[in-house]
Design a protein that fits this description.
CATH topology: A middle domain of Talin 1
Largest sheet: none
CATH architecture: Up-down Bundle
Strand content: under 5%
Shape: globular
Oligomer: single chain
Structural class: mainly alpha
Number of helices: 13
CATH superfamily: M75 peptidase, HXXE motif
Number of strands: 0
């Protein structure tokens, strides 16, 4: 018998027709390390049918409010990349490394947007694990095993990074910010945090993978709060409470002093919980259930 059949017959103490979100969420949090319970929680999410409500108009307005934060964060990344180029010209390796780390903050906060809205630029700026260009190509030069040639090697790659970030920055004032694609971006990034990024992270040479995770979590919290929080609150207050709490648990899981202290299992459970809650919330605010892959035309 499959998991959903178990649920329908009342295994785990729940019968699907009498399902209440607040109860299931509490049980899931209380048994995060229990694979059967986590599977049950996600199965209930997928099986439950919700009737869409009106709210797209308020979401469109909220999405436009998010634009200024996006412009600010990408602008921060661009400014720091230009500082990086100056430090390279001044043959200041330590300064170049600091500027690279600073540039990552604004970029990582914006990843709820970048992979879904500008995938080509995303690949040019932050391809990973491909370290031949973009941020990670520069990271390999600045933090790699051959610091003598680091600045020379990083110069051309930094010029390309600046050009790509400037291209992106110019597009941000006009690119349509659709709520569906932003919600998809939040869900994908949350899932990624609990998956590949929890396993050592992507900025290993520089030792700043934890910084990436923290900036990602900040970006998720910002986008959810600015774009979706009020509309979910109006449509489904219990879901709104659950989503806010899940976001805070995700942020708390990465607020640690060193990556070696990260509890990858706990982080994965928090990320899955947030994904599941947002998949339930989407139809309540008139959106499709968010996907983990970008769909053309959304």
């Amino acid at each position: 018998m499959d998991m959903c059949s178990y649920l329908g017959s009342g295994v785990f103490g729940i019968r699907a027709p009498r399902w209440r979100f607040d109860y299931v969420a509490r049980q899931a949090r209380g048994a995060r390390r229990s694979l059967p319970w986590r599977a049950a929680f996600l199965c209930l999410i997928a099986a439950t049918t919700w009737v869409p409500n009106a709210g797209a108009s308020s979401l469109d307005v909220a999405a436009q409010s998010y634009r200024r934060y996006l412009i600010e964060d990408i602008g921060r990344a661009l400014t720091s990349a230009r500082t990086l180029r100056q430090r390279i010209e001044g043959r200041d390796l330590d300064g170049a490394r600091r500027a690279w780390i600073e540039a990552r903050i604004g970029w990582e906060r914006s990843e709820v947007f970048t992979s879904g809205f500008v995938p080509d630029l995303d690949q040019k700026i932050d391809a990973w694990p491909n370290a031949r260009h973009g941020f990670h190509g520069i990271e390999a030069a600045l933090f790699g095993a051959n610091p003598t040639d680091a600045l020379v090697e990083a110069r051309e790659k930094t010029d390309a990074l600046i050009a790509h970030l400037a291209d992106l920055y110019a597009q941000l004032h006009d690119v349509p910010l659709t709520p569906q694609r932003l919600l998809n971006g939040i869900v994908r990034l949350a899932f990624e945090i609990g998956g590949s990024k929890a396993d050592g992270g992507e900025s290993r040479l520089s030792g700043t993978s934890l910084n990436d995770l923290q900036s990602n979590a900040d970006g998720i919290e910002l986008a959810y709060r600015i774009v979706f929080s009020a509309t979910v609150e109006a449509a489904a207050p219990q879901l709104a409470d659950a989503a806010r709490a899940a976001v805070q648990r995700l942020k708390a899981a990465v607020q640690i002093s060193a990556l070696r202290n990260l509890d990858a299992g706990e982080l994965r459970a928090h990320s899955e919980e947030l994904v599941a809650i947002l998949q339930v919330a989407a139809p309540e605010i008139g959106l499709d259930k968010p996907t983990l892959e970008e769909v053309a035309g959304q």
